[in-house]
Amino acid sequence: MALVLIVEDNPINRDVLGRRLERRGYAIRFAEDGPSGIAAALELLPDVILMDMGLGEMDGCEATRRIRANPETAAVPIIALTASAFETDRVKALAAGCIDFDTKPVDLPRLLSKMQAVLGPKTPAAAFVEG
């Protein structure tokens, strides 16, 4: 089962996205901010991280850079999630080390497709179910 770490400061967003992904066969863990996301990445070594870019004191770009700087977590794929759809935000997230970028509110089929591209054979079969 693929393990997904969701780093998101909004509890409603965490809950909704987490439940939607769990229903599709993913194991989900959460972190509420950049520092706890960095610690969780090291502790869990998830298969993929969904990183909110608009976190509080330490934004998602800085958290991503720190995850990338640690040899133990450097290879964990990170997909940026943000409410901002500007091209400059996408470029900034990719420059920080994210492998992909998606906007909120989350379009689940699109996000699942991006996760499938990262996870390959680890993608749960249920992830392909619409809804």
Task: Give a written overview of the molecule.
This protein has 131 residues and is an alpha/beta fold. It has one domain (3-120): 3-Layer(aba) Sandwich (Rossmann fold). It is built from five helices and five strands; from the N terminus they run βαβαβαβαβα. The chain has helices at 11-22, 34-44, 60-69, 87-96, 108-119; strands at residues 3-7, 27-31, 48-52, 78-82, 100-103. It has a five-stranded parallel beta sheet, sandwiched between helices. α1 links the parallel β1 (3-7) and β2 (27-31). α2 (34-44) runs parallel beside α3 (60-69). The longest helix has 12 residues, at 11-22. The radius of gyration is 13 Å and the shape is globular.
Annotation keywords:
5 helices; alpha/beta; five-stranded parallel beta sheet; single chain; globular; 18% strand; 5 strands; 131 residues; Rossmann fold
The gist of it:
The protein is of the alpha/beta class and 131 residues long.
Question: What's the total helix number?
Answer: 5
* Residue runs with pLDDT of under 50 for 5 or more positions: none
Give the helix proportion (percent range).
40-55%
Query: End-to-end distance, in Å?
Result: 20 Å
Whole-number count of domains: 1
Strand order of the largest sheet: 2-1-3-4-5
Strand residue content:
15-25%
